[in-house]
Structures are given as structure tokens and as C-alpha cells.
Amino acid sequence: MKIRISSLRVCAAIALVVAASCGGSSDSTSTPPPPPPPPPDVGSVSVSPATVSLAVGATSQLTASAVDTHGNALTSPAPVWSTSDANKVTVSSSGLVQAVAPGTATVTATVTTAGATKSASAAVTVAAPVVAASISVSPSASDTIYAFGDSRAFAATVRDSSGAVLSTAAITWSIDKSSVATLSSSSGASTSALAGGNGTAVLTARSGNVSATASVFVRQRAAKLVLSPATITLAPGATSQVSAAAQDARGNTVGGLAAPSYSSSDTTKVKVSSSGVVSAVAAGTATVSVSQSTPDGALTGSVAVTVASAPAFPTSAAVTVEDFDFASDSVDIAAGGTVTWTWKGTQPHSVTPTTPGTGFGSQTLTTGTYSFKFNTSGKYDYFCSVHPYMTATVVVH
User: Fold this and answer.
1) Residue 5 in domain
2) What is the DSSP string of 50-103?
3) Residue 75 belongs to a domain
4) Are strands 330-333 and 391-396 parallel, antiparallel or unpaired?
5) Kindly report the CA angle at 24 between 20 and 26, in degrees rounded to 5?
6) Domain CATH number, residue 92
7) Which of 94, 127, 160 is the last residue of a domain?
8) Do 272 and 290 form a contact (C-beta atoms < 8 A)?
9) H or E element in which residue 192 lies
10) CA separation for the pair 244, 233 (Å, rounded)
């Protein structure tokens, strides 16, 4: 049987390739790749801050930093946190420290690599809560407040059992009678009592289980007498009311006082009643004096009153009697003056007094005049007897 040389050569080549791929050749000079280098070991760990002081219930964040043996920062593995006394201080997996009870504890961060373990710690102190042993208020009593709206300031001081001032202690304020005074603030080291009514109120400052009191005294005092109006001008026979109000230093009305008394410096010009009604008697000036009695003494004031001279009225007047109208329908004359009526038009009219027996009046006329002298002051109404809706008036001064 004949085998071709070329076929043998192909088979030999294939056999060599298979042998090489399977590593079966004893003549091969290739080497496997080197394994990866091991991760660097932790060289040191630090914790920041190194010391922490907390009040019970407070928290603080700690930070751990690690470097390898060459001083390069390590970002993994993450540190493991632990506390030496979980009854005093706890720590979370992220390094958040919380104070539980007074005392001290050590919080540690540990970093472990394949070949090394390193750790660092922070000292945590939990302070005992501050306890207020006493509190005082200054002043212990206000001076008397005499005007509503005035205020007095008060301050409280808290101390511990050793007498040291506790400047951060919480303080609250209260007052027993808000009708007497109200507080500007209900918390803080100080407050003010604002007067609003007569009486005594007790102010209390409290911190924890201790408290102290102070007294607030309010007695409204009349400081001035306000009169209204300040000046008066009247015509003879006219009247005006004078009002008097006692006020404290802040302008608040003072109640509970007796009625003020009034008097006139010249009763021939001006009279005043016991209730303050001013009456103008004759032309001139006078002063109305007012006195108000108070527990702290009398307050006084005065009002200047001017009575104007009587107006000058004419001694004569003219009225036209027109068809269905008196023009003018009202005239003013001085006592002793004369009024003359003149008829114009085509209709008959009369001047007939509304009140009989007054002494004046004309016949029914269509032309001509009628005059009458009025010697007595007063108001004289009249009408036309033919046309009663025609009315008019003469005022004699």
C-alpha cells in the first residue's frame, strides 16, 4: 500500500501543534506569568479627635485614618469601632459616639489586613449633669410702679451646691396676677414686669427643682389734670361743657376719684355748674378753675372763657309783601327798632301775628305800607290771614 509523502507531512505538522498546546514537548522554553503581589499591610491608624467631652445624651463623630507600611493612605478595609464601656459610651459602625452615663470610656478603631492589625483610640469623658442647688431673684421686690405701662426689670442667678454660678442653666418665669403685671419674657436670665393694674403680684423664677420669688407693686398715681376744651369762646347766653380727666404719667386715665370741682373768676361774665357746664352771661373774659382731689394731693387746671360782645343789630328793617310771599321771611332788629312792610303785587295780604295780643298787625291791603316799632325783645311770628301759608318772623334783640 502506498502512502503519499505529502499526507504524512501534514499529519506530522498537526501532531506537533497538538503536542505544543498540551505542553507535551520537553523542548519548550516558555514560563507561566508571576502571581499578583499581596496587598500592602496596614502600617498605622489614627483617630480624630483624640479626646472628647460630652454631656449625657450628646453625640460626636470620630474619624479613623489608616496608612500602609509605605505611608500611603488605605481606603480599605473599613475600620472596626469598639468601646471599652458601653454603659458609659456607645459607638456606631461609622464612628458616631453617644454619651450614655457620666464617666469615661475608650473608643477604638481597628484596621486589619492579611499581615497586620493596627488600632488607635480616643478618650471620651461624659460629664455629670449640672444640678441647680439654689436660685435668687434681684431685686426681691420692685419699687412702687405709679403708671400703667411702666416696667421693672428682674434678673435670676442659679448656683450649684458649691455656690458656683451656673450661667447656662435654663430659667423660666411666671407671675400670679396678670391683671396687675405681665412679663416681657417667660424664659432666660432676665425679664421685665409691665404694669397694667393696681395691686401686688408675685413673680417666680424657676430652674430645675429650685425656685425664688419677687414682688411687684403697682399703684396708679394721678400726675396731671387734662381739661377739654382748653379755651372757650361763647356768645352771650350760650353754654359749653368742660371735661376734666386725671391721668398718670403715661396718659392713662385714673379712675375711682371723686368728681372735680369748678369755679368762675367772674360770675357776672361766666357761670359754671357743679358738673362743668359753662354759661356765658355778658361780654368779657373769665377763668373757669378746676380742682381734682387725689390720694396724693389736689390737681388743678383752668380754662380761659371769652364771652363775645353782643352783635350790633339794626334799628330798622324792611319787608316786601309780594304775591304769596314775605321777603324776607325773617328779620333781626334791636329792641326799639321799627319794621316796615310794603305791599307790591295785585293780591290782598295782611300782617297778622300768630300770637294775639302782641300789639302789631295790619289790615288786609294790596298797596301801601305798614310800620311797627318793637320795644320788647323776643320772637314774633306772623302770617297772611288771606293766604295762611305765607309766614314770617321778626326777632327783636
Assistant:
1) no
2) SEEEEETT-EEE-EEEEEETTS-EE--SPPEEEES-TTTEEE-TT-EEEE-SSE
3) yes
4) parallel
5) 100
6) 2.60.40.1080
7) 127
8) no
9) strand 190-195
10) 18
In a shared domain, residues 347 and 292: no
pLDDT tens over the chain, length 397 residues: 333 434 434 334 444 333 344 444 444 467 888 877 777 889 899 999 999 999 999 999 999 999 998 899 998 899 999 999 999 999 999 999 999 999 999 999 999 998 899 999 999 999 988 789 999 999 999 999 999 999 999 999 999 999 999 998 999 999 999 999 999 999 999 999 999 999 999 999 999 999 999 999 999 999 999 999 999 999 888 999 999 999 999 999 999 999 999 999 999 999 999 999 999 999 999 999 999 999 999 999 999 999 998 778 899 999 999 999 999 999 999 889 999 999 998 999 999 999 998 889 999 999 999 999 999 989 999 999 999 999 999 999 8
Please identify, among 70, 93, 127, the residue that sits at the C-terminal boundary of a domain.
Answer: 127
Per the document, the length of the chain is: 397
Q: Are residue 204 and residue 265 in the same domain, yes or no?
A: no
Total structural domains in the chain? 4
d(CA 214, CA 142): 8
Range of the domain at 260: 224-307
Is 10 within the bounds of a domain?
A: no
User: Going by C-beta distance under 8 Å and a sequence separation of 6 or more, which residues neighbour residue 6?
Assistant: none
DSSP state, residue 259: P
Asked if residue 1 belongs to a domain, the reply is: no
Verify that 138 and 212 share a domain, yes or no: yes
3-state secondary structure 129-183: CCCCCEEEEECCECCCECCCCCEEEEEEEEECCCCCECCCCCCEEEECCCCCEEE
CB atoms under 10 Å from CB of 326, counted, come to: 21
Q: What is the pTM of this model?
A: 0.56
Which parts of the chain fold into alpha helices (H)? 5-21
Residues 47 and 123 in one domain: yes
Q: What is the CATH number of the domain that holds 338?
A: 2.60.40.420
